[in-house]
Amino acid sequence: MGALGAIDRAVGVFESTGNTRVLLFCLLIGALIAWMRDSGGVEALVSGLMKRGLASTPRRAALAPALAGTVIFVETNVSLLSSGVLGQRLFDAHGLSRERLAYIIDSTSAPVSTLILLNGWGAYALGLVEPFGFESPIGVVAGTIPWNFYALLTLGGVYFTVFTGRVFGPMKTAGQGRSVLAEDEEPIAPTRAIYMWLPLAVMILGALGFMAWTGGGNILAGSGSQSILWAICLAMLVAAILLALGKAFPKGGLQERGFAGIAEMVPVVTILFLSIALGDSLRVLGTGAFLSGVAAQFVSPIIVPAVLFVVAGVTAFMTGTSWAHMAS
């Protein structure tokens, strides 16, 4: 019956409108990224940055995706994919490894989302605090930012490696020079940078606006999943109009590349779906309650935050996903 129950919990993922919106959003962002990339918008933006000297050196090339990951704070996946597709071209142009790019974008997107709380994570954190009856829940959540040492140190580490050019451990030898993955890719001719930056700007501003709207004027009280889904739909509409007017693709090419981009995201969405389902299973098993119960027997209240950090890290490592341990 355990296996059958696991199947039911997997199906139950879609009972949550929030989960369904997140999964749908991840598919749609694949289409938007494909449009920006295949239309030549990314190449045009990269060419513009290099011509203006903003990405003319390896250090500046590494700084670009770090800044993009910092500025695009409305949603972790948006930050990852957008800064990744931008940084990929820059890193290839300067012979930097994509392994280092992966480190930079992954170590900026998630930490920034937890430090700049004008997004779904901020709404989630506020929801955790409100039941305790604080006079100013928003103030409590904002007051946790200076104590978010993990995010601050991780983000600081990224900018340290970017500005100094120093890397450590396996990163020193990982992917020396141009990545093997880049050798088989056909170059895309640059067209117009607006094909990339305008849809991204619409999505970021739209997400903030929709969060304020769904929250009755309070961004932190808004629905993160609903807002980001509406924002990606709005950004796709703007991108489709731009690309159609600019005749960036041949007839039928817009739909073809959109579905191809969605297909590229299927493995990611599958992993995310299974992570959420695993989180539900861990909740049913009482994993979180068990670990906290064991820790409570030996832990002084003064070191609870440190123990919670360690337990969360161990749980995420053992289950193979951070989504699952947050849900549990």
UniProtKB/TrEMBL annotation:
According to Swiss-Prot or TrEMBL, what is its membrane topology?
Multi-pass membrane protein
What is any one of the record's Gene Ontology cellular component terms?
plasma membrane
Q: Where is the Na+/H+ antiporter NhaC-like C-terminal domain?
A: 137-324
**Where, by residue number, does the polypeptide cross the bilayer?**
22-42, 62-81, 101-127, 147-168, 194-215, 227-246, 258-278, 298-318
Question: Which InterPro entries does this one have?
Answer: Na/H_Antiport_NhaC-like_C
* Keywords on record: Cell membrane, Membrane, Transmembrane, Transmembrane helix
Q: Does the record carry Repressor as a key word?
A: no
Please provide an example of a Pfam family that matches this protein in its UniProt record: Na_H_antiporter
User: Signal sequence: where?
Assistant: none
Annotated localization: Cell membrane
Record's keyword annotation contains rRNA processing? no
Task: Fetch the PANTHER family from UniProt.
Answer: NA+/H+ ANTIPORTER-RELATED, NA+_H+ ANTIPORTER NHAC-LIKE C-TERMINAL DOMAIN-CONTAINING PROTEIN
Protein name in UniProt: Na+/H+ antiporter family-domain-containing protein
